[in-house]
Amino acid sequence: MNTRQLFQQYLAQTSPAPIGLEIISASGNYLTAADGRQYLDLIGGISVCNTGHCHPSVVAAIKKQAETYLHVMVYGELVQSPQVAYAQLLASYLPAHLDCVYFTNSGAEATEGAIKLARRLTGRTEIIACNNSYHGATLGALSVMGDEYWRNAFRPLLPGVWHYDYNSSELIDAINQNTACVIIETVQAEAGVIEPQQQWLQQLRNRCTETGTLLIFDEIQCGFGRTGKLWGFEHYNITPDVLMLGKALGGGMPLGAFIASHSQMQSFTANPVLGHITTFGGHPVSCAAGMASMQVLLEEHMVEAVQAKERLFRELLVHPSIKAVRSKGLLIAVKLESPDEVLHTLTHCLEKGLFSDWFLFAANCIRIAPPLTITEAEIKTACDIILSSL
Ligand code: PLP
């Protein structure tokens, strides 16, 4: 059996027809396959590789930490300097009240932790989330995810979760003294890139404050410069009570986080003690990698260049088959006539050396979420390939 057949045989599969391209290396904005072909990567591991694949500073930080210590103890017992340094760096770039970080292994675990924190702090159990939102695949995260097709086979899920349309007044009206938290993506990603309306977000903030409801922003996909600002919420001048991060947070290593105020996070220390625990969350190698990646993002001014790159994509992506382009920075959805047309176009793109994907709740859209390091010349190449594949 070749490696592809072994992959089908021994690894749990999540789709009947995986892309199944064998990758032997990845560097910068390119993936290299087993047959030696290079692919320009338009999705960066689904919004993970914001500073490109294997940035030398990230690799150096991983090597250094791997030679120093790996796992030593469950989260929160021993002082591990990579965790401390990264938490401090994150806090220094966040509003003053978001000063305490709980590191997890993944985005879904950040969602689980944030939900527990909201329940613990408010003593309430009801949660409001949005249709077409994605917050992870574990049972709690699945309960707040906003699409019945993906939820249904796994019911019963968490009780007391209500879904409303993003940007809808019904969502605001539904928040009351029983609502523990409202959890939204600051910019909806898997819905095919949907932005919040400024006024709606302000009303949401106000209503949560009035009712003592925690406002949770999921920036797992739209954080770390993807939208053209370091944090998506900076576009709207609205701050959450709890911020969830993941994906690019680890610089290519597994890492998630939920961030709140120091006093709020204290609630995990008593009644019960060890209110939230994890063996590997905040692994020192992941924290070292993530911190190196964030430093590169800041030092190389990658975020500042995002909006010009977004504009170039939008200028070039004009074609009768393109029905709409929705974007916030380098999170771009290119809407075609149908999901079939998207699959057909993606197949042609792959044949021509361009790797892309679709969106979970917008299968009629091509996903463009490349490393933020993508160059002008690469954007032109990518758009040429997309247009010629339509
Ligand atoms: N939240 C958002 C907005 C996401 O896009 C994702 C993953 O795609 C998650 C949460 C879940 O993250 P993970 O896959 O690391 O569990």
Describe this structure in words.
With 390 residues, the protein is an alpha/beta fold. The protein folds into two domains: 3-54 and 302-389, Alpha-Beta Complex (Aspartate Aminotransferase, domain 1), CATH 3.90.1150; 58-299, Aspartate Aminotransferase, domain 2, CATH 3.40.640. The chain has 14 helices and 15 strands. The chain has helices at 3-10, 44-47, 56-66, 81-92, 107-122, 139-144, 148-151, 169-174, 198-211, 262-265, 284-299, 306-316, 339-351, 376-389, and strands spanning 23-27, 30-33, 38-41, 100-104, 126-130, 161-164, 179-185, 214-218, 242-245, 256-260, 324-328, 331-335, 354-355, 357-359, 362-368. Strands 4-10-9-8-7-5-6 form a seven-stranded mixed beta sheet, with helices on both faces. Strands 1-2-3-13 form a four-stranded mixed beta sheet. Pyridoxal-5'-phosphate is lined by residues 46, 106-108, 134-136, 185, 189, 218, 220-221, 246, 256.
What are the defining features of this structure?
Aspartate Aminotransferase, domain 2, 14 helices, binds pyridoxal-5'-phosphate
Order of helices and strands: HEEEHHHEHEHHEHEHEEEHHHEEHEEEH
Strands ordered across the widest β-sheet: 4-10-9-8-7-5-6
Hetero ligands = pyridoxal-5'-phosphate
CATH architecture of the largest domain: 3-Layer(aba) Sandwich
Q: Tell me the quaternary state.
A: single chain
What's the main sheet like?
A: 7 strands, mixed
Which residues sit in consecutive blocks of at least 5 with pLDDT less than 50? none
